[in-house]
């Protein structure tokens, strides 16, 4: 079950690029022109494209080198990038809105709401599309033929026809969790920019005409308490809205925020600041429990009593996310912003669950009687073909440090994302999971673990994520014996078919295997993830009560009595010392006994 009470604050600072203790957005660049900018073609006059030959089998961003508008620009730049094959558009990016007068000459990122899948060593084309008609932005070229994997095209022809446009393609990952997600009560941080990020003079509009924000992922049940960010102007009131999303880049279902995906709203009073002073952080309160999944926060005005107009302040380009977006309220048009901003969501994680991704996920295969470990690939493909002597396995270990001593395991499951699969007359592939005692260290000795099946997928007939229940008795034995890591050997079916699963290296860590263990902690009557003196006070205050779901009903018989004190006594941390708490003969005797036994005094 989920414990009802909460623990210390946990701040979920939305997605992607963090410093120090926080996760950092990563990307893999496939094709690019490494040359310097030589000349730039006016995007309002010239139609431009560049061919390229990918080595990756997918793409979710394109960077192109745009020269900014300068002081004469009065119209915002509104651009998209299209990817074409044989003249047909296969993907178009989100809109990128560049403020009028932005003089920057640099790479600008165009993100794709859906990955483009490629046939390797096949020629594709990138086309820049100018939706605003402004003539103050240009795509820059190199001096000559600096990219051998493709060729530039412009209409009308301009300059050296062999001089390639400056671009990059590749995959960007969005970190939705740390490598070792926190246990209840630990402080963790997800933020689009750290607190000490230096703000610039630019901002992303927050007004009645444009709502702006970004999305994030919750990895465990969480009670949200505040949402906010860093705003560019003070003495304003705006709203913040929290909504349920389906991914990292989709906005709310309705522009007036009346759709059912909007879960909570709040007003945010932005403090006044001196003229020319720095942007300020401001927050609004909410009280909402979120289950694991995708969510988003947008800020705006004109609704819910908000009348101000401000902006999300831009911060250093080394921080932040390329997934900041705005949508126009008049028609719902969506724009991916080029600015990096700071947006914050704060909350408290619920006790009673331990959720973690593997410390490693690798593939092992036997060659001539020797197990060879292969790491760094984007997927693991377990298969078992006895006829050919083939036995390829996936190997993973998960930390158990977040499960407290004395916990009673109530459930365990692992979710794995399918990367590829085969099927035929012999049936469908499947996985069997075999447990072993891990230590968090990758070595070949773990590859040859004996058969010890603790979970099974069943037939894998689609690319939907596969949920597999694990043997809780086996997990309980590991916890009771102080084993630090759960080891899993993933083995394939013997019918000649195989299915692969995504790993950390796939580029989107939220697709890596995810282990969730739920547990109860007998005697933890206040739900703080520990058994101690404060739990005794809960028992004391509710002694004699009867009914359902009583916090101090340790044995679940519907009555808080001495038997529930025994549950607490047997699991209290202080009971591990040489002096144990005695049985109470009355409420007052119990108080005296506990105070004497654990040398603790109420303030």
TrEMBL record:
InterPro entries in UniProt: Dockerin_dom_sf (IPR036439)
Biological process terms in GO annotation: polysaccharide catabolic process
SUPFAM superfamilies listed in its UniProt record: Type I dockerin domain
Keyword Ligase: no
Record key words, sorted: Signal
Range of residues in the leader sequence: 1-22
Keyword Secreted: no
The protein's name in its UniProt record: Dockerin domain-containing protein
Protein's organism: Botrimarina colliarenosi
């Amino acid at each position: 079950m989920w414990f009802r009470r909460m623990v210390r604050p946990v701040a979920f600072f939305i997605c992607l690029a963090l410093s120090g203790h926080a996760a950092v957005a990563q990307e893999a660049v496939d094709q690019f022109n490494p040359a310097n900018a030589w000349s730039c073609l006016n995007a309002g006059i010239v139609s431009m494209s560049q061919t390229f030959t990918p080595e990756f089998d997918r793409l979710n961003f394109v960077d192109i080198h745009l020269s900014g508008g300068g002081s004469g620009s009065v119209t915002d730049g509104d651009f998209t990038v299209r990817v074409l094959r044989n003249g047909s558009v296969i993907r178009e990016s989100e809109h990128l809105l560049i403020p009028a007068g932005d003089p920057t000459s640099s790479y600008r990122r165009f993100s794709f709401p859906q990955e483009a899948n490629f046939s390797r060593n096949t020629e594709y084309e990138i086309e820049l599309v100018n939706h605003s008609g402004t003539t103050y932005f240009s795509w820059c070229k190199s001096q000559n033929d600096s990219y051998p994997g493709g060729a530039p095209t412009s209409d009308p022809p301009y300059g050296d026809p062999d001089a390639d446009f400056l671009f990059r393609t590749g995959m960007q990952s969005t970190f939705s969790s740390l490598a070792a997600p926190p246990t209840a009560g630990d402080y963790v941080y997800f933020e689009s920019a750290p607190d000490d990020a230096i703000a610039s003079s630019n901002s992303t509009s927050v007004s009645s005409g444009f709502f702006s924000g970004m999305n994030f992922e919750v990895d465990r049940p969480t009670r949200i308490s505040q949402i906010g960010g860093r705003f560019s102007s003070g003495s304003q009131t705006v709203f913040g809205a929290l909504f349920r999303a389906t991914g990292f880049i989709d906005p709310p279902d309705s522009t007036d925020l009346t759709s059912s995906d909007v879960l909570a709203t709040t007003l945010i009073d932005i403090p006044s600041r001196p003229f020319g002073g720095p942007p300020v952080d401001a927050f609004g309160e909410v009280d909402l429990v979120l289950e694991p999944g995708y969510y988003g926060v947008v800020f705006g005005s004109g609704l819910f009593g908000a009348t101000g107009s401000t902006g999300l302040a831009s911060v250093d380009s080394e921080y932040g996310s390329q997934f900041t977006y705005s949508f126009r309220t008049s028609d719902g048009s969506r724009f991916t912003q080029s600015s990096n901003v700071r947006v914050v969501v704060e909350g408290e994680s619920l006790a009673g669950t331990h959720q973690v991704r593997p410390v490693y996920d690798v593939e092992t295969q036997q060659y001539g009687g020797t197990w060879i470990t292969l790491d760094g690939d984007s997927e693991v493909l377990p298969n078992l073909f006895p006829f050919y002597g083939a036995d390829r396995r996936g190997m993973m270990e998960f930390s158990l440090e977040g499960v407290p001593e004395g916990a009673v395991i109530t459930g365990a499951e692992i979710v794995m994302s399918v990367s590829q699969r085969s099927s035929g007359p012999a049936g469908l592939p499947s996985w069997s999971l075999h447990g072993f005692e891990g230590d968090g260290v990758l070595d070949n000795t773990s590859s040859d673990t004996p058969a010890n099946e603790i979970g099974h997928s069943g037939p894998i007939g689609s690319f939907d994520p596969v949920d597999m229940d694990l043997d809780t008795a086996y997990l309980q034995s590991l916890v009771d014996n102080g084993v630090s890591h759960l080891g899993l050997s993933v083995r394939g079916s013997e019918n000649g078919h195989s299915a692969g699963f995504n790993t950390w290296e796939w580029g989107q860590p939220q697709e890596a295997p995810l282990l969730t263990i739920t547990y109860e902690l007998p005697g933890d009557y206040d739900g703080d993830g520990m058994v101690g003196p404060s739990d005794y006070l809960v028992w004391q205050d509710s002694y004699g009560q009867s009914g359902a779901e009583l916090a101090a009903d340790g044995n679940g018989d519907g009555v808080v009595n001495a038997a529930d004190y025994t549950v607490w006594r047997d699991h209290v941390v202080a009971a591990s010392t040489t002096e144990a708490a005695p049985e109470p003969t009355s409420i007052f005797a119990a108080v005296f006994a506990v105070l004497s036994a654990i040398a603790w005094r109420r303030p």
